[in-house]
Task: inverse folding
C-alpha cells in the first residue's frame, strides 16, 4: 500500500471513530435516529469544515467529496443498531478516536502549510481540525466540550501538529514526517488515558 | 404575481416565522429586549449566513441586503409586545415555520447547484440552510437543538431539497421544480405534526 | 504616540481583557489549564475571526498575525495563576473589557466599511466583532451567552459602531471618528454598569 493510500485509510478510520463518538453522545441524550446521524456527521466532519472555511477553500472538501460524510453517517447508523454493544467497547473506540486525532491534526497542519500559513498558525489550524468536531458535538448536546476538561486530548493534537511543522521545517521527507508526528499524537493520547495524566486546575476554583 | 415575486414573498414569510420562533425561545428564557431581537435575527438569518459562508459568497447576502435581518428583527419586536398572544397561536406559527423550512431548503439547494456543487452536496447545503437558524437559536439558549429530537423536521427539509435536486436533474422547469419540492417539504412537516410521526430511538438508551 | 499605535495598544488591552473573561468562566467551570487557555483564546479572538470569515479575508488575521492569540493565551495563563486575586478585581477587569468592547466594535465597523459594505451591514459587523468572542465563550461553557441577558452590553457596541459609521459618512477625520465612537461605546457600557441600566423583558414571561 502506498503512503497516500495508507493516509486515506487512516483518515476514514478517524472519521468513523469520530462519527461513533458523536452518535454515542446523541444516544445518551436520547435523540432520535436523525439526531444521531446529524451528531455523528457533525463530530466526523466539522473539524475539516472549519479548516476549509478558515483556508477559504470553497466549496469545502466535505461538500464536494462526500465520503467523509458518508463514513460518519454510517458510523451513526451502526451506533443506532448496536448501541449497547458499542457502549461496552469503549477501549477500541478510544483507540480509533486517537488515530483520528493524530490524522486530523497532521492533515490540518499540512494543508495550512501548503496554503502558505506560517508554522504557528498552521499548528493551531491542525489542532482546530482535530478537536473542532468533538467541540461542535458537545456544544450541540448542550454540554461543556469534553476536550476542554478531559485528559490530555487537545494537547496530544497540539504535539502532533507541532511535531509535523517542526519536521517539515527540518526538511524531513513528507511521508516520514507524517508517520512520526501522527504516531506521537497517538502515543501521547493513549498514554494519557492509560496513566490518567491530568493537567492542573486553578487553585481556589 | 410572477414566480420570482412569489418566492421572495414566501422567503419573507419564512424569515418572519423563524424570527418569531427565536424570539419565543428568548422570552421563555427571560432574556431582555436585546436578547430577544438577537435570537430572532439568529434564528431568521443564520441558515442563509452559513450557506453563503460555505459557498464563499462575500459579503454574505445577509450583510449586503438587509431585509432578512430587518424582517427577523421585526418578528422579535412583535413577539416582545405580543408574547402571550403569540404563545397561544402555536398552530399558525408552526404553519409559517413549515413554509420557511420548505423555502430555505429549496433556495439553499438551488444556490448550491448554481454554484456548481454536485447534487449530494447541494442537497445537504439545502438542509443546512433550512435548519441552521433553529440550531443556532437553541445552542445560544444552551439547549439541545430541537431539530435533533423533535418530530420529522430536518427530514422534511431533506425531502424537499432532494426532490428539488432530482427534479432539476430531470430537467423540469425551474418554477415547477421549486413549487413541487417546497410543497413536498411543507406537506411532510405538517403531516408529521398532525399525525405525531416520530423517528425511532436506539434500544437500551 | 501616533494614533495607529494608540489604537493597536487599545486593541491589545481589549484582547487581554476578553481573554481574562474567558479564563475566569473556565476556572469557574473547573476546567483544566488547557481548557482555561482555550476559552481565553476563544473569548479573545473569536470576534475578529468571525469578522474576517464574513469579509472573506483568508487566512483570517488571527492565524496570520499571532499576537492576538498570544495575548489572549497570556491572559489565560495569568488567570490560572492568580485566579483568586483576579476574581476580586472585577471592577478593573470590567473597565478593560469595556475598552475592548469599544475598540472591537469600531475596528470591525471600519474594516467592513473599507471592504465596501453599506453602513447598516458594517454597523452589524462591528457589533458581531465586539460580542462574538463573549458569545462563543459562554456557548462553549454551555451557558446562555451573558451578552443576551446582562446589562446594556451589545447595545453599547451597537452605539459605538453606529456612531463610527455616522461620523465617517459625515466625513469626519478617521482619527477623531475612531476616538469619539470608541469613547461613546465605553461610556455607555460603564454607565450601564454604574447605574444598573436594564432593557425591558416581555410581559408574562
Result:
Amino acid at each position: 500500500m502506498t503512503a497516500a493510500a495508507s493516509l486515506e485509510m487512516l483518515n476514514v478510520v478517524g472519521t468513523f471513530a469520530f462519527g461513533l463518538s458523536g452518535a454515542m453522545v446523541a444516544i445518551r441524550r436520547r435523540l432520535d435516529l436523525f439526531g444521531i446521524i446529524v451528531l455523528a456527521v457533525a463530530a466526523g466532519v466539522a473539524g475539516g469544515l472549519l479548516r476549509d472555511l478558515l483556508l477559504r477553500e470553497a466549496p469545502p472538501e466535505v461538500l464536494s467529496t462526500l465520503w467523509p460524510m458518508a463514513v460518519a453517517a454510517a458510523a451513526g447508523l451502526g451506533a443506532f443498531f448496536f448501541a449497547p454493544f458499542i457502549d461496552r467497547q469503549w477501549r477500541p473506540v478510544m483507540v480509533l478516536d486517537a488515530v483520528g486525532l493524530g490524522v486530523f491534526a497532521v492533515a490540518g497542519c499540512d494543508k495550512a502549510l501548503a496554503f502558505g500559513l506560517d508554522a504557528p498558525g498552521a499548528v493551531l489550524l491542525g489542532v482546530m481540525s482535530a478537536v473542532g468536531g468533538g467541540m461542535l458535538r458537545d456544544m450541540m448536546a448542550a454540554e461543556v466540550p469534553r476536550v476542554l476538561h478531559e485528559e490530555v486530548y487537545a494537547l496530544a493534537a497540539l504535539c502532533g501538529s507541532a511535531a509535523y511543522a517542526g519536521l517539515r521545517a527540518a526538511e524531513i521527507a513528507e511521508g516520514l514526517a507524517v508517520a512520526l508526528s501522527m504516531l506521537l499524537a497517538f502515543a501521547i493520547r493513549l498514554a494519557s488515558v492509560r496513566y490518567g495524566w491530568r493537567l492542573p486546575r486553578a487553585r481556589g476554583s
User: Anything to note?
Assistant: The interface with chain B takes residues 53-56, 112, 115, 117-118, 120-121, 124-125, 135, 139, 142-145, 147-149, 152, 154-155, 198-205 of chain C (CB under 8 Å).
